[in-house]
Amino acid sequence: MQRSIIFPAVLLLAPAIATAQQGNQPKNWSSSIGIGTVAMPTYTGSNRYRVRPVPLLQLEFKERVYVGSSTGGVGGGMGVYLIRGSSLTWSTELSTAGKRRESFGDGLAGMGTRNAGTFVGNNISYRAGMFTAAANVAIGLGKDEGSTGSVVLDSKHVFGRRWIASVSSGATFADKDNMAFDFGISSRQAGRRQALIAAGDSRLSAGDGSIYSPKGEEIAPQRVNWNSDEATRYMFRQDPGADLNSMGFVRINIPNPHGVYMHDTPSKGIFGDDFRFVSSGCVRVQNVRDYITFLLRDTPGWSRDQIDQTIEGGQRIDARLAQPVNVYWTYITAWATPEGVVQFRDDIYNRDGLGAIPVARAVDKEPEEQVN
């Protein structure tokens, strides 16, 4: 499972319209009816939120089998309570993820409708007073859904017999298949989107990029048959610019056989994260203008003012260092402080070389020497 993906949803107010034991039904059956208001993204991954009503429907048999709202989140499901106590609850269920229609947002232009998904999962929650902590894991039954999980902290207060105010916050984690289910784009979808861009569709922009053939020839978007797989044979390049290019203003090349380099980034916020394992091998640089000034300090014509002017100009300019600078990469997963405390970190890149070898083992005791 991956940590990187978080989809927040805040439950603003959930007034229970009615919760009743149906008098004309057997005692084994019970039902609950309510409505909630949820602020959530217009679709998974969208930066726009909408407030929508959510029906809260539940039909239970002997307080063990239920059909209605999923206990793992917003959506429908049916399941069985394996444990249902006053504090601890554990259930297993079959739930659904609804269709995602292109009309949900401009960012989905050309994507068509994504089919609904079906998941089987386990949900566990623990309540202490007005607070409830919950976690769930769900595995898709189809070939596309993948696996997902979530953690939620909820605070709920009951007013009288029919009204409930609740606030919750949580995070969702997903594997690569589930990421593709929500965020993936096929070559056919990419073709449709590029065709919309070429036609001037106001929902999409070209992103200030260029298209090149395998021979390096720049190709106009109008020349590409976006309804075929032709686009998969071309190279796409983003133009320079902090808001346009994922490498920000500058790329710093380093001679090495692995294609690794340092670069700026438009995502400055990641430097404040405790876990910054977001690269595929290259290295984002904080305060990159200061770093460039240091590297070009002995190179004529590259004062700090010139560097700032070049960046503001937005044109590609290659600068070669007058004096080479040695680069050393250090990968540290354990170190000791002057106070005698040993710090350990996860070996996320598996570079420690330990493999299955134990980190430590007891030294065999040497046999004692016999004295006559």
What does this structure look like?
It is a single chain. The chain is mainly β and 372 residues long. The chain folds into 3 domains: 10-178, no CATH class; 185-239, no CATH class; 244-366, no CATH class. Helices cover 10% and strands 34% of the residues. It is built from 4 helices and 19 strands. It has helices at 176-183, 187-198, 288-295, 304-313; strands spanning 10-13, 18-20, 29-41, 49-61, 65-69, 76-84, 88-97, 117-128, 131-140, 147-159, 163-174, 209-212, 218-219, 235-238, 251-253, 261-263, 283-284, 334-336, 342-344. Strands 1, 2, 3, 4, 5, 6, 7, 8, 9, 10 and 11 form an 11-stranded antiparallel beta sheet that branches. Strands 13-12-14 form a 3-stranded antiparallel beta sheet, with no helix packed on it. Strand 18 (334-336) and strand 19 form a beta hairpin. The termini are far apart. Residues 1-23 have low confidence and may be disordered.
Structural class: mainly beta
Uncertain stretches of 5 or more adjacent residues: 1-23
Q: What is the 3D form?
A: globular
N→C terminal distance: 65 Å
For the biggest sheet, the summary is: 11 strands, antiparallel
**Could you tell me the strand content as a percent range?**
25-35%
Question: What's the total helix number?
Answer: 4
| Total beta strand runs | 19
Give the overall pLDDT as a whole number.
78
Pattern of helices and strands:
EEEEEEEEEEEHHEEEEEEHHEE
Query: Residue share in helices?
Result: 10-25%
Q: In total, how many domains does the architecture comprise?
A: 3
- Taking all Cα atoms into account, the compactness measure Rg is 28 Å
